[in-house]
């Protein structure tokens, strides 16, 4: 009886192996009866455009600090071949710190060169193949006060616009 | 009391008198210093002025070069399914901003010459992601110009906004089969 049972198990196992199939990829099935017992699958990962931008949070002048240096950095750059990252700078108040109608002007040097007389200009370009780039920004003021009659915090807000071209 | 003892006693007495006189004179100077401002002027360039230990060097202000910048993760495009308001994204506030800046994200679609805001987030803490957002409307299939506006806020009680960044991207809206 024990021998018969063993024989039945062996037969069932043989039958099971005989009709087994191997799944490789969706839509592709190879059986032992196939003429070609091999297949291909594609392994891939799509890499998109990526970068890390580090911007100066704020610039705060004082009577003893009329020149302030900041830097802007683009790092970990992954771009399509032939393209580039372009960073523009613009000011909410056209490079004036304002408060209740009064204003205090300031100017900017980009890598020690005077910035263009515009409110939106390019400060940095990083080309494909370059892993990073940075620019030195020098903010200067002589604290010239126009229509300043109130005490308070005179502020401006900068926007750094990044385009992939 | 012999002669020697008498001499020693006399010397000790004389020394005591001299010390007492010196003490009285020193105290008198102190009173003058307090009462008479002119006295201060008189000794202004003199040796009695000491360096004030309470005076400090110029402190490093928040506006100095040491201030930590805001780190923003940039991308070139987003892909959304057409006809759906709930869409996948990955808006991320990097760990580098820990304990300094929250970030908010605003998705703006260029329509003609104007930008239409499709989504505005709340404050995202450093190290956290937004993986799914709900747009203000569904989009038709197509290829659009858009901007991800990133506004940082300081992680203090005032939560003041800082300078900000606009990332211009391509927005691909595709039909789902």
Can you summarize this structure?
The complex is a heterodimer of chains A (165) and B (177). Chain A is mainly beta.
CATH class of the largest domain in chain A: Mainly Beta
The N- and C-terminal alpha carbons of chain A lie at a distance of: 81 Å
The run of helices and strands of chain A is HEEEEEEEEEEEEE
Percentage of residues assigned to helices of chain A: 10-25%
Placed side by side, the strands forming the largest sheet of chain B appear as 2-8-7-4-5
- Give the CATH topology of the largest domain in chain B: Immunoglobulin-like
Tally of extended strands of chain A? 13
Overall residue-averaged pLDDT value of chain A: 81
Q: How would you describe the oligomerization state of the chains in this entry?
A: heterodimer
The CATH architecture of the largest domain in chain B can be named as Sandwich
Structural topology:
The complex is a heterodimer of chains A (165) and B (177).
Chain A: H1 2-18, E1 21-25, E2 28-31, E3 50-55, E4 67-78, E5 84-91, E6 96-99, E7 102-105, E8 107-110, E9 113-114, E10 120-127, E11 133-140, E12 145-146, E13 158-164
Antiparallel strand pairs in A: 1-2, 3-4, 4-11, 5-10, 5-13, 6-7, 7-12, 8-9, 8-11
Chain B: H1 3-35, H2 37-42, E1 70-75, E2 77-81, E3 86-92, E4 101-111, E5 114-120, E6 129-134, E7 142-154, E8 164-174
Parallel strand pairs in B: 2-8
Antiparallel strand pairs in B: 3-6, 4-5, 4-7, 7-8
